[in-house]
Amino acid sequence: MTSSSALPEQAGRACHNVVNPFHSTHYFAPELPAEMAALGIEDRSASYFACRSAAMGAVGPGTVTATFYNFNHELIARHVPHVWSVTTPEQVLAARLRAADATLRRLLGDAAVESPEMAEAAKLALRATEGCTPQARPLYAAHADLPVPDAPHLAYWHAATLLREHRGDGHLLALLDAELDGPEALVTHNASGRGMSFKGVMATRGWSEDDWQAAQERLRTRGLLDAEGELTEAGVQLRKDLERRTDRLDRGPYAHLGAEGVARLTELATGFTTTAMNAGAFPAVMFGK
Fold first, then answer.
1. CA atoms lying within 13 Å on the CB side of residue 276
2. Per-residue pLDDT tens for 19-28?
3. Domain residue extents for the chain
4. N or C: which terminal CB in the chain sees fewer CB atoms within 10 Å?
């Protein structure tokens, strides 16, 4: 049942910003590479591509490039579809869920994991996902086909995954509309001070410094980046427009949940995410400029 009160502007974005990290914790945790190594996948990039694409089945590199957007296709093709000769999507999905379980228990503690607040967060987040739509959202739609785990903390993690991929798929549509390719999207997000750090990009996305500099030059030609690599006024406006367009495309789940539900989910998610961050869930070197 949705709320009758109007959803405040950017309430959905604010909620996403604290729900999404709950999903993302496992990407930076030692539990995931340990689980993946047991399946025969020891490379960190291969592990990421396998985990995040497994819901779509044993797809090829083109599908992963299309849905991940800002990764170098050459890096993806180095690992996909080879990973599917080592293991199966079903095994990867099971390993990912085990890693999420262990990661969350370590970061939050059993008391928080088994608390009434966690069960409430799961219920609210799952209700929000009822407002998601699958059209033109391949990563969301693939994950929406997966069963909801029984344990509340994993049900919440699953819902956070759906909300993350729903917004992410919509964001890619906004990037296409803004005519930003993968490296250009990374450069502008980094220049905004809100994206992944330069070191983080170089370590994970497969682009070279020459690729980065070429993207910067293209953005300068468009008047979006200045000589020092900072966003111009037009560049700042472009990033604002991107987020507003993404908000509009991602309004469904939060409008369905309603203002009171969104406010409560944001409150609960803030508590769990803050605890996880204070426990060292995310390496500082990966974020900022």
1. 27
2. 999 999 999 9
3. 11-281
4. N
